[in-house]
Design brief:
The complex is a heterodimer of chains A (about 375) and B (about 450). Chain A is of the alpha/beta class. Chain A has 14 helices and twelve strands. In chain A, helix 8 links the parallel strand 8 and strand 9. Chain A is globular, with a radius of gyration of 26 Å. In chain B, helix 6 runs parallel beside helix 7. Chain B starts with a helix and ends with a helix.
Chain lengths: ~375, ~450
């Protein structure tokens, strides 16, 4: 940065300087301040300072919770309608529960696939081995045995290099899952930018009025087609940008031009797994939520996390004796990834392991409670009582 | 709020003497406000001006040193609520507890595990930082004996007892090594404060789930002239974690945004409390403890006491800590170019990866442990991982063609075959078109790369 840019950058937030009761431009202050005025200014400053000290001494006596007012709020998105039990996302008017408890607890949606997925790590496979041939059975097990709030059906088999299933076959898989469970669905495609919009359109039609979340619209594919399918058949859309807040804003704007509203969009700012760039996700998600509460209408939608990405980390799945069993490492990797995203403001989590889902939900559910309303155990003698 | 460069500039001499190494006072002010230079470099300041500036530049959360010399660890020092605003300073030390009533052999064994635990990632060795010795026996002389045994440990100490007599006995042994005194409570604050002053040690204030009282006692300690205070508002697991989070966030917000002098201190979290009366088995309790540790490290814990020592429990916590404490102002990247492995000749294979530090070090580790021979081209993707760079467009044919030209790899090998990462497969056609090389799509994970280079290339 050269000096001029540096100076300009510094002045970005300093275009005016406020002095007690009057205001003047920065240039003016530097160039035209007369000695007499200066004296007045100094006196005024002194008074302010004294008042400040007294005020501080008084305030220091009592504890006041630091609660803020936010001009904006996160839109509420309903998933599930028709024959589904609805789930609500978002609706926050504050950052933390001591300011105002969250209106809706975080939601977990279990990943289910339209093919038996040979690549799934063993700690997950062993829970679903018996149902992997049928997405309907798989979904049922996720809901019945593991308490999933929702199910994500990934139509991986439609990938041209996977099984190249037709949109018609994709629609049949959706019908099977819809029959099997009564929770709302996320419908994911294979990640092929040419085929995804067509697959999602067919799936959306098959699930008309069931208010599914179509995953996803992004700038690399025909997002208009995805948006149109959502509008035509009454679904919501997952708006996916890659850890870039401006890209996210642009995409949201485009989607809203296609007829979707804030209440029809869930954002996916991309979850980079623990140790694989999670800090980028932390920053983007935090900034997005803060922007929403500060009033940016292009970012006032709930957020989703592809927490499953955690299983791509070698620490989660790689056999290595000195790291201990993958049975434990894998779930923790997924929990810590999801939990970190949750603490930054994510509302819905796509996950794979039953234990991870349980842990995340336990902490998430406390978010809807008020500060100091939980009965807490006596820990005052922990130094001697801890075994 | 964080101090701006303009706030700092106003107090500098504005002579632009350049003796600090910066061309102007404004540039120096910028570096000072971003904590990239030290105030001592300015030779033009009078003593009182220096103090004023030092006060202005003091972090919102006080920095406190526990231990001395090689054993010293620094706690606190943060300036901002969110890491993207600047960075978080002084990564959260992980302290492992040990009870004073353990049998000698078990005691020694546990100390050894704490000292030896390590995990390497991105060229950095991640380790544990200190030992918390608990006066579980309730007996002062037992506590003293146990502390004696820890004198030869290479780690800093946290002395845990609410009994002032036991604390005094322990301080007689290690009081000159600056251990953290844990802790002052409603019942013992006078005696503990006297010990902190007598031995000049930092002190932790334990006031569970009552910030009003916490503030009152923090003032009490400050009024006695104690400046090195660490706040423990209680760690509750299970449903209570919500209250704990609220307490942590409120303390940090009051410190940074309100500059409330009673709360401008580091926060202590105790995930070890997961083990207190836990009804679950050891594995589940350990998984839960890692979860609590991750929660607290995300939301402002400046130091933590942990009970579990299983490596599979600690690796995720160490990794999270390393990630959160990276500096967002610096990309996590290595230099682009060509790197050499093993014995090379003109038939050696050539592989490609990105310059994201984690990607590079992972591939490097795998090539070394697999005893591979070959060249590794490292593409400048501005510190992005392969899949992210493919999606973001930095991993493209033209960039690879430029890299081949810049590195002069065509003079080093006769072959014109390039192994690209499995996740880069979508770009294989484009790379072939732009480079004229044959592209071979390699494994998705570099753990299989060494064998791949031997068998398939």
């Amino acid at each position: 940065m050269d000096k001029m840019t540096q100076l300009l950058k510094l002045l970005e937030n300093t275009d005016t300087i406020e002095l007690n009761e009057f205001r003047m431009d920065f240039d003016e202050l530097e160039l035209h301040l007369m000695p007499a005025i200066q004296q007045v200014v100094q006196q005024a400053q002194k008074q302010v300072q004294q008042a400040g000290i007294v005020k501080e001494a008084m305030l220091a006596e009592e504890f006041k919770p630091p609660i803020y007012d936010y001009p904006g709020e996160v839109a509420e998105v309903q998933l599930g309608a028709g024959t589904r039990k609805p789930v609500f996302l978002g609706g926050q008017k504050a950052l933390y529960r001591f300011e105002e408890p969250q209106p809706n607890p975080p939601v977990v949606t279990f990943d289910v696939f339209d093919i038996p997925m040979p690549g799934l790590p063993r700690p997950i496979r062993e829970h679903f081995e018996d149902v992997m041939e049928h997405p309907g059975d798989w979904a049922k097990k996720a809901v019945k045995d593991f308490g999933a709030n929702m199910v994500t059906i990934h139509l991986i088999g439609t990938g041209p290099k996977v099984m190249d299933k037709t949109p018609r076959q994709a629609a049949e898989d959706i019908e099977e899952v819809l029959q099997a469970v009564d929770v709302p669905l996320v419908i994911g495609a294979s990640g092929d930018p040419q085929k995804d919009p067509i697959v999602l359109e067919a799936a959306a039609a098959a699930a008309e009025d069931e208010r599914c979340l179509l995953a996803s619209a992004n700038l690399d594919l025909d997002y208009r087609k995805v948006a149109k399918a959502a509008v035509d058949y009454n679904h919501a859309v997952l708006s996916w940008a890659i850890t870039d807040i401006n890209m996210q804003k642009t995409l949201n704007k485009y989607l809203m031009k296609e007829g979707l509203t804030q209440n029809d969009i869930v954002m996916d700012p991309t979850t980079c797994a623990l140790g694989y760039g999670i800090e980028f996700s932390i920053d983007v998600i935090t900034r997005t939520r803060l922007a929403a509460l500060k009033g940016d209408t292009d970012l006032q939608m709930p957020m989703s996390s592809g927490t499953t990405n955690a299983w791509g980390s070698r620490e989660a799945w790689m056999k290595k004796e000195e790291w201990g069993p993958t049975d434990y490492r894998g779930p923790i990797w997924e929990i810590v990834t999801g939990l970190t995203m949750m603490l930054c403001g994510v509302d819905i989590f796509m996950m794979l392991h039953p234990q991870s889902v349980k842990m995340l939900r336990e902490i998430g559910e406390t978010f809807t409670k008020e500060y100091m309303t939980t009965e807490v155990p006596d820990i005052s003698n922990w130094v001697t009582e801890l075994e | 709020m964080a101090v701006t460069a303009m706030d700092v500039y106003r107090l500098l001499p504005k002579t632009n003497c350049a003796k600090c190494g910066e061309a102007s006072c404004m540039a120096f002010a910028t570096k000072l406000s971003e904590k990239e230079m030290d105030l001592e470099l300015c030779t033009q300041l009078a003593a009182d001006e220096f103090d004023k500036l030092a006060d202005l530049l003091a972090p919102a959360v006080k920095e406190i040193t526990i231990g001395k010399g090689d054993k010293a660890i620094i706690v606190g020092g943060d300036e901002v609520l969110y890491r993207y605003e600047l960075t978080y300073y002084n990564q959260t030390p992980l302290v492992i507890d040990i009870a004073d009533d353990m049998e000698d052999a078990a005691f020694e064994e546990r100390v050894k595990i704490i000292e030896d635990t390590q995990f390497e990632r991105t060229g950095e060795l991640l380790t544990l930082d200190a030992i918390a010795i608990r006066n579980k026996s309730g007996d002062a002389s037992k506590f003293k004996e146990a502390v004696e045994k820890l004198k030869k440990s290479k780690l800093a100490l946290v002395l845990c007892s609410f009994d002032a007599d036991a604390m005094k006995a322990a301080l007689e042994v290690v009081g000159d090594e600056r251990p953290l005194i844990y802790g002052a409570t409603e019942n013992n604050i006078e005696q503990m404060a006297s010990l902190a002053l007598e031995y000049d040690c930092p002190i932790a204030l334990f006031v569970p789930n009552d910030l009003e009282k916490m503030k009152e006692f923090s003032r009490t300690l400050r009024a006695k002239g104690i400046t090195d205070i660490i706040l423990d508002p209680g760690t509750y697991v299970g449903d209570g974690i919500g209250d704990t989070l609220d307490d942590f966030v409120m303390i940090r917000r009051l410190a940074i945004e309100e500059r409330d002098e009673d709360f401008r201190f580091p926060i202590l979290g105790i995930p070890a409390l997961t083990w207190l009366n836990s009804e679950e088995d050891e594995v589940n309790t350990a998984i839960k403890e890692a979860t609590i540790a991750a929660t607290l490290i995300n939301k402002y814990a400046d130091i933590m006491i942990i009970h579990g020592t299983e490596i599979w429990e600690l690796i995720p916590v160490l990794t999270l800590r390393q990630s959160i404490f990276t500096d967002p102002r610096k990309p996590q990247a290595v230099d682009a170019g060509v790197y050499e492995f093993g014995e090379l000749n003109e038939d050696s294979p050539v592989a490609l990866t990105t310059n994201f530090a984690l990607t590079y070090y992972t591939v490097e580790g795998d090539l070394k442990s697999g005893k591979a021979n070959g060249y590794l081209l490292v593409l400048d993707t501005e510190g992005r991982a392969v899949d992210v760079a493919v999606a973001g467009g930095q991993f493209n044919g033209k960039a690879v063609a430029d890299l081949i030209k810049e590195t002069g790899i065509e003079d080093k090998v006769k072959t014109r075959k390039l192994v690209i990462p499995g996740l880069g497969a979508p770009t294989s056609g484009e790379i072939e078109d732009d480079t004229g090389w044959e592209v071979i799509v390699g494994p998705r994970d570099s753990s299989a790369l060494s064998d791949f280079l031997k068998d398939k290339v």
